[in-house]
Design goal:
Shape: flat
CATH architecture of one domain: 2-Layer Sandwich
Distance between the termini: 98 Å
Number of strands: 4
Strand content: 5-15%
Strand order of the largest sheet: 1-4-2-3
Oligomer: single chain
Length: 191
């Protein structure tokens, strides 16, 4: 009887150790997978394949008559268009909406035409939240646009960030459609 109780206890302890080891192994595997999936992914560019040289076909030596030289008119300097708007943000956030990326890319292309031009980035918010929170949110939104421009290769010294909070709505804050329009950053040329 005494031996059978000891045997049952040992069996129970052994089963608990196996369960504990399985649980520990499973948790370790899940942790490893989670950490791997959270790692920053790096863009890996594949090298261009080496060009294949083909033997040139034999060329007959014929000299063409020299063409009369034409005077080319200088290309007209295209004036940059800085009238870009509709840079929108997510609710209570300074995360840019994906629809704003094409607008920002156009802005970058226009700004590169005039690299010495100075700009004011006016951040705005809708009327939800406290005035202090909305002011900080509008500054963060303007800084998000500035960061986008700097990452695109523009000079950060050309941008001044100004937060307006909820003070200058372009639409009514009584509807969600109006509030969406008020969550914005506007680009203005500095005079």
């Amino acid at each position: 009887m005494f031996g059978q109780q000891t045997h049952s206890k040992l069996k129970l302890i052994l089963n608990m150790n196996i369960t504990k080891n399985l649980l520990f192994t499973t948790l370790l595997a899940l942790f490893t997978l989670t950490m791997y999936s959270c790692k920053t992914k790096k863009l890996v560019a594949k090298p261009a394949p080496a060009p294949v040289e083909k033997p040139a076909p034999p060329v007959e030596e014929k000299k063409p008559a020299p063409a009369p030289e034409k005077e080319e008119a200088p290309a007209p300097n295209e004036k940059p268009n800085f009238n870009l708007d509709n840079i929108q943000f997510e609710f209570n956030s300074f995360v840019l909406k994906t629809s704003s990326f094409s607008i920002l890319d156009k802005a970058v292309a226009e700004m590169k035409k005039s690299p010495s031009t100075k700009f004011i980035l006016n951040g705005h918010s809708s009327a939800e939240g406290t005035p202090d929170h909305n002011m900080q949110l509008s500054i963060d939104r303007a800084n998000a646009v500035k960061s986008y421009f700097i990452n695109a290769g523009l000079n950060g010294n050309n941008f001044t960030v100004v937060g307006h909070g909820e003070k200058e709505p372009i639409s009514s804050n009584t509807s969600e459609e109006g509030r969406i329009l008020n969550r914005r950053t506007e680009i203005k040329v500095q005079n």
